[in-house]
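Hypothesis: this fold can be encoded by more than one sequence.
Test: take the structure tokens below, design a sequence, compare later.
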């Protein structure tokens, strides 16, 4: 076998170096850019908490791809029943970024993007993992409103790609936020919605969250990403840009909620009950029927959530002592009072049991073991239950 001459060897080396540069150039071009898109809150109830997605900008593709964990199928068999039981299924969908943005542009929701300082290998691995996860057989996941939603899935995917960087830097820090506080704050533009969260959530929702748990809110995750650093000191977020302007009302701000206005309202209503029981007994009985019906209905709903659903953050709800299902037993006696008849002996005992339960709610609130942030509801409802007991205590066996 012959050997190459010196000029031939030089030409061969030149070709090899050129090929190496070409390969490096292709590798550099092939590395995708990774961003987190954050969508501001909308006006529909399931849009109140904002949204986010991971964007993969791969030079080999015609346009960036949005990996969106927020899709669900309204036509899925048993959708409503699954929603009630807390067994909803969501899915990851990959779609062109322009198509994903079209909806938010139409409804006026702002969208911003944070481009991340990922190494080429990290970006490629994350893009491959997302593509695999978006395959139809892998895309569905069991949705949990607080602990496994569209935003926590984005958080977890980034954390996995970065070798646990997010958890290490966020788990030990806290702003004192709670799941209840965030849910009530973001739902506040819709009174029925924030009331539902505030009444229906139990003590598990009142534990102070680490920044890691706060990331169930997309805007909180975006805030957290701004403060993260790589091991070499680089900021994780290399650039931010606004993709769409926000044309709706801004995200509700944090605001304290003192209990004393609720207490003032409770005492005022209690005084009205005491006055009405003497001066307008039938009108007071009508008001009692409405109040006890509401308590019984809400109490039954909370009991159902605790015993028959997977909504874990509604279990053990101490508001059951205030919106007492036992109030259903007061309805026959209240109806008799409305008709000017004696309510019966069971009526008085039930009034006493309901008042004692409300007092127990106050006692539990003072205990340091798993307290529930329901002081405002106690301040409002305890005076009412005591007022009904005092005003109607002597009417068990005689007409109102």
């Amino acid at each position: 076998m012959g050997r190459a001459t010196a000029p031939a060897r030089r030409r061969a080396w030149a070709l090899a170096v050129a090929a190496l540069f070409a390969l490096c150039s292709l590798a550099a071009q092939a590395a995708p850019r990774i961003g987190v898109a954050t969508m501001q809150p909308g006006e529909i109830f399931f849009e109140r908490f904002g949204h986010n997605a991971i964007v993969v900008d791969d030079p080999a593709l015609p346009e960036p791809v949005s990996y969106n964990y927020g899709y669900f199928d309204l036509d899925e068999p048993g959708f409503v029943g699954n929603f009630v039981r807390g067994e909803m299924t969501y899915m990851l969908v990959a779609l062109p970024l322009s198509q994903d943005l079209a909806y938010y542009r139409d409804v006026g929701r702002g969208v911003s993007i944070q481009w991340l300082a990922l190494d080429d290998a990290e970006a490629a691995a994350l893009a491959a993992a997302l593509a695999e996860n978006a395959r139809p057989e892998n895309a569905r996941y069991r949705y949990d409103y607080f602990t496994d939603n569209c935003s926590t899935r984005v958080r977890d995917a980034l954390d996995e790609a970065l070798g646990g960087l997010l958890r290490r830097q966020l788990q030990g820090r806290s702003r004192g936020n709670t799941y209840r506080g965030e849910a009530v704050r973001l739902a506040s533009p819709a009174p029925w919605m924030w009331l539902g969260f505030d009444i229906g959530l139990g003590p598990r929702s009142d534990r102070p969250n680490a920044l890691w748990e706060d990331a169930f809110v997309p805007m909180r995750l975006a805030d957290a990403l701004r403060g993260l650093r790589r091991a070499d000191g680089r900021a994780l977020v290399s650039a931010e840009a606004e993709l769409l302007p926000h044309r709706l009302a801004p995200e509700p701000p944090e605001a304290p909620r003192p209990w004393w206005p609720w207490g003032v309202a409770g005492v005022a209503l209690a005084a009205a009950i005491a006055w009405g029981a003497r001066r307008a007994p039938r009108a007071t009985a009508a008001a009692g029927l409405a109040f006890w019906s509401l308590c019984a209905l809400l109490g039954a709903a909370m009991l159902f959530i605790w015993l028959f659903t997977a909504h874990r953050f509604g279990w053990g709800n101490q508001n059951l002592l205030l919106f007492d299902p036992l109030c259903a037993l007061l309805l026959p006696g209240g109806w008799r009072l409305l008709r000017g008849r004696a309510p019966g002996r069971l009526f008085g005992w039930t009034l006493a049991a309901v008042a004692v339960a409300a007092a127990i709610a106050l006692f539990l609130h003072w205990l340091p073991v798993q307290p529930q942030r329901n002081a405002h509801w106690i301040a409002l409802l305890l005076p009412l239950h005591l007022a009904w007991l005092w005003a109607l205590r002597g009417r068990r066996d005689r007409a109102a």
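The two ends are 120 Å apart (CA to CA). Residues 1-28, 396-400 have pLDDT under 50 and may be disordered.
Hypothesis status: open.
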